[in-house]
């Protein structure tokens, strides 16, 4: 009898374990944002780039901290200030068995900037660059002026197969016909809105991927995504809502992975109009734009309790910011710390600026773009009101917000006076925010495209431009740090915090959290 | 009758044309799609290039004219985000939504109709009162909350049903359907129930009210007096006569089920049109929004026409003709 019981429990145990053992190689993932295409050059968008990276490879592959690592290129160096040479990896094969050579790289250079109907083109990273084949495993990229960010740019787009990519349309990639790369996973099937299936590339040149099959389900709604994980319908989800983090942390069956991102949440202030539409006198009448006074900007920065925002609004899941990128990134300054909360000296600064009674201000922000964005704007308004700057809050969907914030005013100028925004440095170094947010707005040269406060400081401009022309890494790093210090000390923007992203999985799995906020299936590993 | 139908068709064309104008201009007032599409690191030249590529630098009336001249040829534009024809994207997702809507409708008829008739026949019984109280809950609880609660109970706590997505599909007459496989059915239950909850409550109320009215009519009394079984009286004489209000309401509601199943589709990650359009709205994918609304208008116009025709079939006293002033 006892033997029998042992036998039964043995069978039951085997039966219970069996499905686990069978599916241990298979991974089901719930994604907040679905890629809009399988074509790696169609849309420069985070979910697309993450997927493309798994199916295709890049010359340079940023690791989880956006440090540049060899990909299809094994090494790179500037042979002259205007010429970069990339040595390609030998013995790499595409999913169909054709070998990878320099011709594929050259073909990629032709196709990537010229995809029809592309909503966000990779031309950004390819313009002004000419490519030459030296031999089958060496290419040279030539620019007119010295260009230090070449390896960074080469880490942004996927290398496709010339054989399958010639004449291929975006639809050919979506159907899988042309979706043949060198990456860790092979494309199997995509039913938009429903599922995306990948399978392991057993001949991958790099570390062998853990999962034989990955099933990706787009689950946009946050609570539904968490429920799917709790119900065991998926083993892994990204973008865990901050409100659920504490509860999930206590669940013994689950595991959370967190990591700081390259995204800083900051405030931009109108620094170009003498009469700013949302800056009013205490009684609501017109007043000179107080935000042009650096003392007022510093008062605002000191009035904000970043620790409180992180603790209360972000539920502890963020890091107070003192500059444009968190520590560890290329070009950050070692001297900048988050501004201390100091309402007393904030009031003093206001008084020094001739506004002892404060003034009226409206903060504008999106309510569906960044983690808890509307709540952050509300918290800031309360903190400013406490030092006498009576602040109203107006938040709106991102679809309405960004147009108004960028060019909603007269002559396509920014409409608002005081805004909450975020910036993720896609290149993984400090020139990205410096160039777009803090350099003087200059349409013809492509500077300050997102400088919605129209901050302008010749010293910053000069340092940024010099850095962008300096190929020597050590020198450039110093220049970027210096530019950051000047701009932040002048309060060109007010940094609030760095976003921290959370991924959740069943026990036994963990995610190598990425600063670029991408969800990679090669990054989901056993603990 | 044919004159009536022709006239209604002509009216419908006017309605569709006016709607296209309203929808197109309304959609063009909100935001700028380029901000939603383009990578923030793109510079000014890149942004302008993209605007030109999508024709967004043109004045609205020019864009509308362009849209209209293509629409007449059956081309409702290409999605900004997916780069594929908007119509194709919507039609691809239509089977999933239709399946969900008809499953919900079926539940409403099969479950709610008998309950409503019962509540109408025995208005004072405890069970009837429970049904009516339940229908109030069905009306007033928000769909997304009920959906999440269903997931919590049936998927997370009990583990009986899957929480998300559409199950395995098979091809039926060239259309992908999921109700023919066990896995597909399991995936269908919760979203269909969630979507039908409101319709069930409505059907219960309509059926009850109609039953209460019909049950006191002379022909019912006469049928009883003739010695017919209650079963026959209810299933034949009563049921036929309460169907008119029920069909009217359900017909109109079917349009709503198909066009506005957004919440249920979002909560259950159901790959239907609703999910497509809500994401298009959030990302300002104008061609999809416009195409979707145009299809919705067409659908409502058609359903209304069908309901009118069905009326005259169900009730011979109704003649299809225009009311002369």
Q: Give the CATH topology of the domain at 92-269 in chain B.
A: MetI-like fold
Oligomer: heterodimer
The fourth-level CATH homologous superfamily of the domain at 92-269 in chain B is MetI-like
> What's the tally of helices of chain B?
13
The chain pair with the largest interface is: A-B, 58 and 54 residues
Provide the β-strand percentage band of chain B: under 5%
| Major β-sheet annotation of chain A | 9 strands, mixed
Radius of gyration of chain A: 25 Å
Number of helices of chain A: 17
Q: Output the helix-strand order of chain B.
A: HHHHHHHEEHHHHHH
Strand content of chain A: 15-25%
What class would the helix/strand composition of chain A place it in? Answer: alpha+beta
Number of strands of chain A: 20
CATH superfamily grouping of the domain at 263-499 in chain A: Dipeptide-binding Protein, Domain 3
- So what's the CATH class of the domain at 263-499 in chain A? Alpha Beta
The Rg value of chain B, from CA coordinates, equals 24 Å
**What class do helices, strands and sheet pairing of chain B give?**
mainly alpha
CATH class of the domain at 92-269 in chain B: Mainly Alpha
Distance between the amino and carboxyl termini of chain B? 18 Å
User: Which spans of chain A have pLDDT < 50 for at least 5 consecutive residues?
Assistant: 1-22
